[in-house]
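question for whoever is on the cluster today: can someone run the full assembly for these? two chains, 731 residues total. i dont have access anymore since they changed the login thing
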Amino acid sequence: MTVTAPPPAAAAPERPVSRAWRLLRAVPPIWLVLAVVIVLIAWRNPTFVEPAPFLAFLRRCAPLAVLAAGQVFVIIAGEFDLSVGALVTAVVVVAARLSDGDPGNTWWLIPLLLAGGALVGLVNGLVTTRLRVPSFIATLGMLLVLNGAVFLWSGGAPRGSLADNFRQFGRFGVEIPGLGQLPYAVLILVALGVGLWLLLSHTRFGHQVYAAGGNPRAAALSGVDVRRVRTAAFVISGLSAVVAGVLLGGFTGVTAEAGVGYEFQAIAAVVLGGAVLGGGRGSVGAALAGALTLQSVFTLLNLLGLAKSLRDAVQGLIIIGAAAYAAHRLRRSG
Amino acid sequence: MRHPLRTMLAVCGAAALFATGCTSTAPEEGGDDGPAGSGTGQQSSFFVQADYDEQIAQRSVTPTGPADQPWLQAINPQLVDTAKYKKAGKHTICFSNAGVNNPWRVVGWTTMQAEAKLHPEIAALTAVDAEGKDDKQISDIDGLLASKKCSALIVSPNTTAALTPAVEKACQAGLPVIVFDRGVNTDCPVTFIHPIGGYAFGATAAEFLTDKVKKNGKILALRILPGVDVLETRWAAAKVIFDKADVDVVGVEFTDGDAAKVKTIVNDYLERHGSIDGVWMDAGATSVAAAEAFEDAGQKVPVITGEDQQDFLRLWQEKKLTAVAPTYPTYQWRTPILAALDILAGKQVPKEWVLPQPTITEENLGQYVLPQLPPLHYALCGCEKMPGFPQNWGGNQ
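^ ran it for u. tokens below:
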């Protein structure tokens, strides 16, 4: 999975400069981009990097970052999951109706939602791997099914409301003296991020995900059950969409708009993080950095006061540029 | 009217793929409109002074008709004769609906169906849903005309210009045509039913703010998106009021109607300005999100404007907010059915049927809070005494 050739001096005794250079090159470039964007934001708006505003920024980024961390599994395994945005909407609408504002319902509601998300992922995976429907179509179909089902069930307007103890995950946090409120959403993001990183980069399953996407035939020949691995990746994506839905619903309250467009943002974040569509490359950390970068770029473009139409165009260019850069690196490293 | 707005949102969303989310907002005042002294930017290109003056005046006109049935009331009605449409027997009322894709339209459509059931002389209400698409609505109207079953045709147009030819065609077919909510550029329909309008809505909210906010107080205006006439008129009226008053409009921001974005924007303004004394909203769907952003930042919710959705009214009552809710009442969905029956009975109806547009204030708030109804229910449905209430509107007994 190395990206660039080691510097020519690698064989000779290392000088400190080349050693630092090599360490720097080992860092996915998205982190450097993120750092540059944050510095630019801080230059325009110094309060941004104070603890409370920065934590608030992380809190609102958490749903997208969680989605991206799940999506990266699917993309590395060589597929797409376009259904996550619709799944987030479904989670918010279903949770509102079942919770009905009663805190006593929360304890069974969240496991139920997670089970539902896993089921959606399982169906996506089985349709893709067993029925051999391309995942682009299978998950687009799931998107429409979920949107239609939500509309049918809610009659167009969400009912019920989310209990406070359900909303706290996306809305509140633990008070830390001197620092202000540490949002639960940030804690959940960190825990989930670390967990998924360990799963992808330090387990047998993780290696199989890379193998299934990088060269499915070789993976199959070496004993990897590609279909099962890919299905599992869809289940992970579905579960992460449920977590994102709980966080987003907590943050905003009940709306039928929660999650609209998130599937594209999640894929964009993963691409920004250097994953290659088609599979085999990417990482959880870089996907998280991609999500944070995407959101901080929005913040920066806003701070610079660009007209909305221009902002959209710039965002599009950034995505295309990132994908082109990833493809370029892929060619260079063979 | 809500409906094109949603279409616009969808189009913008698709075009901008990544436009929603946790964006931060510009601290520069006035946004894209360039600098202006009052902070409100340039006046909207949709602003028409005569319409503004008319709507401001209509707010204080006492409407004709029964006070307890505002959907039957009319402001300054000019009655027209309908004898030529008189028809005996049972009627099939046809309805071309722009869409049912937001809570406002869901409440309205439910109410209209309930109204139709109240009248034994209606054999059937045949409705076609255009799903927010102009082209579909045009062919829907063609289809209804071709069926030759309609006694009268009700149209809630998706957009004004695109639907005008289709409505003209329906008029030429000899049917009595009733247009409501959003208008068309022709006077061939027998009647056009609508509440007072956007200027009155925006002005009522802005006047409340300028009245309650301290001198030179900081006001944040949150708009859904630019370029939609019904929303532009709301803001245009508010701008006129703010420019005349001693308030400091620190920002005018577009939210795409996205609650997450609203919270983000409010949070950013609080960080930058320390406090905000008033929030003006061009529609109430995200008022609760705006109020929560203050709570989350540990601040008292300032003077705020909303609409007649239950979630906002409940928050207002619980937290004892200083608030006002101008409305765009959903009871206007009852009127077209009643108008159709009047026309088919040969009774006179107003050529332009302007319905009253009540404002919810602290004094009358209690009567509009309906705990058994869902959070996105619009209180001014005029449906409380209809059969099937509240279950058919999503409520609990």
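summary bc i know u wont read the tokens: The mean pLDDT of chain B is 88. The radius of gyration of chain B is 21 Å.
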